[in-house]
Amino acid sequence: MQLKHLNLTVNDVEASREFLEKYLEMTCVNSRGKGFAAMFDDNQFVLTLMKGKDVQYPKTFHIGFPQESREKVNQINKLLKEDGYEVDSPIESHGYTFYMEAPGGFTVEILSE
């Protein structure tokens, strides 16, 4: 079994979409105004974003974006910092990883093995 689709309710669909496109190389394949966007990754995983009010996910909720190498994790981390995001440097944990709150109100994990 393989997970192929996830829907997220977010505070700001446009900001979430732009973040996912720029830093995580997802592609927007469909959108409807400011309330909906459908995103694909290279493996045809579908992430849909829907506008909500006062979105609050549980503290430990996050979405993982595995990368092919530690260098790619470092590259994303550096770009985020250069663009003004407050992110901790990657650490060794269950992989080489860091977490951050993405625009729209959800947490992402960027990691490699």
Could you characterize what this model shows?
This protein has 113 residues and is an alpha/beta fold. Helices cover 22% and strands 38% of the residues. The protein contains 2 helices and 8 strands, in the order βαββββαβββ. The protein has helices spanning 13-24, 70-82, and strands spanning 5-10, 27-32, 36-40, 46-51, 63-66, 91-92, 96-102, 106-112. Strands 1-4-3-2 form a 4-stranded mixed β-sheet, with helices on one face. The longest helix is centred in the C-terminal third of the chain and has 13 residues, at 70-82. It is globular and about 40 Å long. 18% of the residues are buried.
SSE diagram, text form:
Layout: E1 5-10, H1 13-24, E2 27-32, E3 36-40, E4 46-51, E5 63-66, H2 70-82, E6 91-92, E7 96-102, E8 106-112
Parallel strand pairs: 1-4, 5-8
Antiparallel strand pairs: 2-3, 3-4, 6-7, 7-8
Brief description of this entry?
This protein has 113 residues and is of the alpha/beta class. It has two helices and eight strands.
